[in-house]
Design brief:
single chain; about 200 residues; about 80% helix; about 0% strand; globular
């Protein structure tokens, strides 16, 4: 079905690819931040710039939905996918801003591991978006993202448990609970994108 529908408005797929690219870029920048906490201000500004570009792209998608007489896939699916991609980017931006707000100077190893998981999930999303017209390939990426979500959950649970072991510093515990929570939410939101992509690819196979 995709082959017959694509000529109606190829631009939507280009916009999805651009959003996915911004998502992967923001995840890479966040990972860089976790490895370079002393440069937090520059990293946060760079991620905010990507987030702003993604907001503009999402607005363009929604405007195009209203203007297009015939869309390549359901209008609701177009809106849903663009929104889910933008949601992940918003969470990446929010995670970076919390890092700055909490005045974190040294990054704990589990946070770096979560950042790496998030980066790999973002790369899988970008690949899935590029192949969204091929259901079998999308499914492979969805499986990979699910595995990454489970890996992230395991890291999160271990990290939170470690925060409360022994005699923890209360302020540090609060800071890192917030950071671990935001990182986990970002990873979980990647699975949300994967589920939307899988649904679209199956519907239009």
């Amino acid at each position: 079905m995709f082959g017959r529908l694509i000529p109606r408005d190829e631009q939507f797929f280009d916009l999805f690819n651009q959003l996915a690219e911004h998502l992967a870029t923001a995840a890479r920048m966040l990972n860089d931040l976790l490895g370079d906490p002393q440069g937090v201000e520059a990293h946060v500004r760079a991620i905010k710039d990507v987030e702003h570009k993604a907001d503009l792209l999402t607005a363009t998608v929604n405007h195009r939905i209203d203007k297009s007489f015939i869309t390549p896939i359901d209008r609701e699916d177009i809106h849903h996918l663009a929104s889910r991609l933008d949601d992940v980017i918003d969470l990446l931006d929010g995670t970076a801003r919390r890092f700055e707000m909490l005045h974190i100077n040294q990054v704990l190893p589990p946070a770096k591991r979560l950042g790496e998981v998030l980066l790999r999930a973002a790369d899988q999303i970008q690949a899935a978006v590029k192949t969204m017209r091929r259901a079998a390939l999308v499914n492979q990426h969805v499986v990979a993202i699910k595995q990454l979500e489970e890996e992230g959950d395991a890291i999160y649970h271990e990290a939170v448990g470690a925060l409360f072991a022994g005699s923890p510093d209360a302020l540090d515990t609060i800071k890192w609970m917030e950071m671990y929570d935001t990182l986990e939410r970002a990873i979980d939101s990647c699975m949300g994108v994967a589920q939307v992509l899988q649904s679209i690819s199956i519907k239009n196979a």
